[in-house]
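$ run holo --ligand "2-succinylbenzoate" --emit tokens
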Amino acid sequence: MEIKSVKLSVIKMPLKAPFTTHLGTVVERESIIVEVNGMDGHQGYGEGVAFSSPWYTEETVQTSYHMLKDFLIPYLKENPIAHPAEVTEKFRVFRRNQMAKAALETALWDLYARQENRSLSNVLGGTVDKIPSGVVVATKSLQETIQQIETYLATGYRRVKVKISPKNDIQLVSELRKWFPDLELMADANSAYTLKDIDRLKALDEYGLLMIEQPLAYDDIIEHSVIQNQIKTPICLDESIVTFEDAYKAIELKSCQVINIKIGRVGGLKTAIKIHDYCKEKGIPVWCGGMIEFGISRAHNIALASLPGFTIPGDISGSDRYWEEDVIEPEIIVENGMIAVPTLNGIGFKINKKRMQEVTVFEEYFPFN
Ligand code: OSB
Ligand code: MG
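-- output --
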């Protein structure tokens, strides 16, 4: 792949409404948009999904920027690749920093797909033309949660996820069950529990949750297996799965029955697909997680979620879930609870240049000659 230059743009946009978990509240989203310019005139786009502060993983927008600018982009310049599937192995010389790596790797996949005149879904091995859409409701009050769920159900969303902690769990879930007895409902704890809370987690069994996401520590695999052995509700791991090896260990130890795959958290599409393939072989269903992201990352998620092992609706909502106006066109829309998998080349969306300009706070070019 002959590359002419890479451009990094830091963008910033307020969320339509605050997003609250027990770890804190997000009101504004900052991201890095990576544009890779091929010698042939094609472009590829990726999005860095680290947050402004390290509340979800250790990376931040600033650390990702540093990794991209000072290590990953110079390394790619010095070590040309023939195919995007080579990138992950090459970047192993730099430890971790998964989200920074994924930002550049995904841009190279988009570029490659466009050069091949194929959709990204087709390049990755996607098998469906639409994917089911789920949504996350993360507000501060029960009343707001109920209202939002009603709105989203009217839009057609197929599955709802709420955020729980020992402070609100039974109360929230039991109340939601009264209002929405048949709703496909799941709960994400973002590591709010410890082994001592086993009775609270057992008590959640009676509410028919699809799964409980990441109850224990963000870096735990062993104790989740202790809990999974004692509760009926399937455990889904999110934060704990940062590499293929983590997924392998979690499945071997029976720490979970489901895995949430996020492209950024695992360092790129190559590893995301490797985890997908392994889970499929082992009978572990997977779904695609979300990062309150903009359209570019969402588009990559849609392509990934078109692979056959993604049998559960993910956190892939429409552009209007978080944004007044997204940075891609057309925007991502949910129809009857489904999102169409684009058939156009690459990620299948164009950059909304006007919107990009409005929200860009900083940009920098890295020529490869
Ligand atoms: O734990 O899945 C999570 C958002 C930011 C960081 C972590 C998580 C989330 C979400 C949802 O739950 C996301 C979304 O709608 O993009
Ligand atoms: Mg989660």
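-- notes --
The mean pLDDT is 97.
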